[in-house]
Amino acid sequence: xxxxxxxxxxxxxxxxxxxxxxxxxxxxxxxxxxxxxxxxxxxxxxxxxxxxxxxxxxxxxxxxxxxxxxxxxxxxxxxxxxxxxxxxxxxxxxxxxxxxxxxxxxxxxxxxxxxxxxxxxxxxxxxxxxxxxxxxxxxxxxxxxxxxxxxxxxxxxxxxxxxxxxxxxxxxxxxxxxxxxxxxxxxxxxxxxxxxxxxxxxxxxxxxxxxxxxxxxxxxxxxxxxxxxxxxxxxxxxxxxxxxxxxxxxxxxxxxxxxxxxxxxxxxxxxxxxxxxxxxxxxxxxxxxxxxxxxxxxxxxxxxxxxxxxxxxxxxxxxxxxxxxxxxxxxxxxxxxxxxxxxxxxxxxxxxxxxxxxxxxxxxxxxxxxxxxxxxxxxxxxxxxxxxxxxxxxxxxxxxxxxxxxxxxxxxxxxxxxxxxxxxxxxxxxxxxxxxxxxxxxxxxxxxxxxxxxxxxxxxxxxxxxxxxxxxxxxxxxxxxxxxxxxxxxxxxxxxxxxxxxxxxxxxxxxxxxxxxxxxxxxxxxxxxxxxxxxxxxxxxxxxxxxxxxxxxxxxxxxxxxxxxxxxxxxxxxxxxxxxxxxxxxxxxxxxxxxxxxxxxxxxxxxxxxxxxxxxxxxxxxxxxxxxxxxxxxxxxxxxxxxxxxxxxxxxxxxxxxxxxxxxxx
Length: 666
What we know:
single chain, alpha/beta, five-stranded parallel beta sheet
């Protein structure tokens, strides 16, 4: 039997660049050549000049291959460089090229397995750089074994694209075509061409840009250098996934390509705005703030922000309940906040931290017998229970007495966390109205600790605003004071976004004094559902992306305008047109409509025609908590076609209605 020999394409197979496309690095070359006083050409002009000279030399060369020395000889003539200047220019490009190289982890592992089995590999590259540079990099990265072979077009004058480099390799190694097993990224030069010669060839596609990476790389409203490095950073991190399980792999890759850039952009905006407003400390409110806080720590460390970033345990229940002073309509609106399938006598009582047994007689007297306390309330029952809470002195007195004990512990915790410090501070949260910030401000102001006007809130989106000064609340992606209808559509499903910033612990219920410290009391120490889903893989991917991006991009290259362009582009693609795999994996995220988490829902369950029919009969075919595009993406398109058409009509009418309302109120 003939011995099998393995060969690998080098670039975009064994080695991947941090740049989205190879020629993008010429922008950085232009910067460095300008700093060295070698060119006065603009950053936009140089890549064209550099590539055109290479093309011209190839057209004059019978083999269609050139060496980088020839390229820089031609450039030296054009710019009248001395031999020293030519060497410096050549060194600049070579160093920038090498600095952007990274091994592809899966291919590295594969080659190391071949080496461990006692076999050598052949590396084959169409590249103008000298063979020694490529070989030394492979050696440095422990991917070169004595006996390995490297064939480079710049040294041989032969190319993979024409097939001559493969023929040369076979002849030099004394191999028959059937013995060689080649892997490479290019469908023509790494697959079609060698297969014509009888070589066993397969394509490696993981290094090709995904639809998200392409969207950024081709977004011409972004500076070329930024869009290339951002897209390349996403790809590098995507390839670095430590997971092989399909579910975890989708989590890692989507977090890398979508929520990594989006959440990084949001946190950067928070830090930028805080610095502009001379805010010295930012509190990231749990649970939405867990991953945001971790990103902020990285940005501050690398980009030098002198802002004290802290994680604050809190929730609507833990912060708003202690701020209650009387049971007026505003407080009752919060207590009886209602969404699909989320309100019962038990959950209402839990919101205000009282046991329904303590008000059993009042409830029974008003028609709420104990056997229905756990059942979902109808709208009329909800209204009736609200009136009971409003009119019955026994209930309001019990709630207000409970508030007093909770308030003392809450104030103790906030004081312990530095809210009495004589510095300016702000809060970071996801959205959507600023009600938690208002409650916190009322609580502190009532205790004569901090006036409302000193509190600043930074939000991903604000769909509405509570009664606070407009300058107290700032929004990144969507702001109802400066409305953009398309962005409102994207962030309409608050459940989806809240799930995308989920934490690994349960929500904060209250605060308790234990010894000399105030401790947040969590509903659950671990958020089992989100842990089982894979939140750690998700957060690791986002933080890994952030690290890669920070190492490759300087802050002066990243503007707030650019960050919004990036977020807009990625979110529109992900939220409105998720792939089937993304829909299946992220649709399994669970979210509660209720602040006490009495019931959990999947964001995008896989529904059959029967399920859609049931929802239709119930009069609520498209509940607000469902991520509808993801539901459709993973359902059988033929069985749900009537419902998809109905949904399209439903959405069109809803869109017209929303648009009219938006125009009237904006």
